[in-house]
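Q: What does the assembly look like in three dimensions?
Context provided by user:
Components: two
Sequences:
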Amino acid sequence: MKYIVIDTLGSDQGPKAILDGVKEVLENNSDIGFIIVGDPKLIEEYNFPKDRIKVIETYETVTNYDNPVEAFYKKDKVSIFLALKEASENDNTIGVISSGATGALMVGSIKYLLDKNRTRPALAAVLPTIDEGKCTCVVDTGASIDVGPHQLVEFAHLGSEFMKKLYKIESPRVGLLSIGSESTKGNKLVKETYPLLEAEENINFVGNIEGSKALDHLCDVLVCDGFSGNQVLKVTQGVASNLIREIIKFGKKSGKENEAKMIAGHLISLYDFESSGAAIMLGVKKTVLKCRGSSGAKAIVSACQILINLNSNKTYFEEVFDK
Amino acid sequence: MKYIVIDTLGSDQGPKAILDGVKEVLENNSDIGFIIVGDPKLIEEYNFPKDRIKVIETYETVTNYDNPVEAFYKKDKVSIFLALKEASENDNTIGVISSGATGALMVGSIKYLLDKNRTRPALAAVLPTIDEGKCTCVVDTGASIDVGPHQLVEFAHLGSEFMKKLYKIESPRVGLLSIGSESTKGNKLVKETYPLLEAEENINFVGNIEGSKALDHLCDVLVCDGFSGNQVLKVTQGVASNLIREIIKFGKKSGKENEAKMIAGHLISLYDFESSGAAIMLGVKKTVLKCRGSSGAKAIVSACQILINLNSNKTYFEEVFDK
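A: Here is the predicted structure of the complete assembly.
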């Protein structure tokens, strides 16, 4: 039996949304168990099969307002840290899922799970592109904010390895997020990184990519600092969501409600951040998935599926999108 | 007669796209003339009324690959620089329009038109939000790339003044682009800027805004460094354009082509970057509008209308959107 370690605290929707997801995964995957971190009384209510779950009792969490390093040293029962510690110590675990504070997840991952030779992990997001069924992995999306050029080169390697593994792409094309496609365009960081990526062995560097083409599938891995990558990820989510709302509104006004709903539904299936919104920690020994704070059961199920696929060497698409 | 200085070189679509726009503006605005920078032979073909145009002859331009500072000192006939010089010296001009290289426009604006007390201009873009008819001014969007906290405070003032003037907003709400709404979130620059904006007089600071809410009209002015702002602007354009293409494709496949076209048309009218895509240089003595390199006649007409409105103290909406 392989176990997924899951942190039930830290989600905006409360532990039940997470436990609903766990229930569904247990029902559909007989060879998977869970190590559930949280309130045992609440977990007991679900009557999960006793032989497939283990509970780590805690009620303590950290918020986005807490200093994660301070929390790590001062609070010894924080759910996110207990989950990561368990994954580092227990060989039967295949990964960790949390919807909690990114900073704490980062600090805990560094302390317990960081790969040798890495300075810090990166948080990647796999986004849908204009080529149906094709994705681009944006790295970093918010874990490593103030970074230097050598860290961006590291992100290029991490993203390439990940896309090779999850999507079986032989030589992933790596793009560098910039403000224009020309090699001379960019901020100081991008200008310093460009020649390094050009010279780097085992990186299929395709040059600068501007934001308007970030999701045009011109690259398989889009490298950027965590602040800019967070903008790419979240602006995409925001604009897609605003446009979808606008379509529904327009449908009502124009008497084409059904067609509008059909089109909106199609776009939601493509840009479905509820089910594909998990960010993936790269550069760590076990796979760590960060779901959005607002994640519901569906997001949790999808995150578990990614862990199961990575562990069984199936591609993400084979299991998640073809369902 | 008030004159608009227009650079006809530097557009990806060639000078004719620009001159087609000039023609339309001349036909619809009897009190506006043009100072046209470019190839006199080409301009002559249009038979513009002689008393309303003046031509500055040149064939020289700079590309995004040129170093703009070097170009400024070594090339003395560059269209973009000649246009800005004319605006600085001729009291009858109301502004400058160019689709050329942003870097060159920036350097020329600093040399000829920079306001006293400003370190450098900012490039703002006015983007549509989820509140119909309401916009947010993003500043900077690509002119000032590697900036410090005091420059972001300056952007807040420039954006506030601009939104007061163009949209008659009494006390524009200023947001700071970050990776979360909490005051503790952000990169080094954002964390240093936050307390400065909080303490700043005459700034209605409403806190951090994350990318997913950049266009939710939570603020009237969104302050950010030029690299991140460029991502907000261009990712918005890219995602909107990808979704609109997807709607058309889906319409064809599902036999709902007409409804899909209707919905796509509605979204295009809201997110119409061809007509509202001009970026506005702030912190300069004359209004300088930077159209996208791909701008056609429609974008030029719209940019001229902004200049005419700003000059006549009308709001942008009164003239552009209500037409």
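Follow-up: Chain A has twelve helices and eleven strands.
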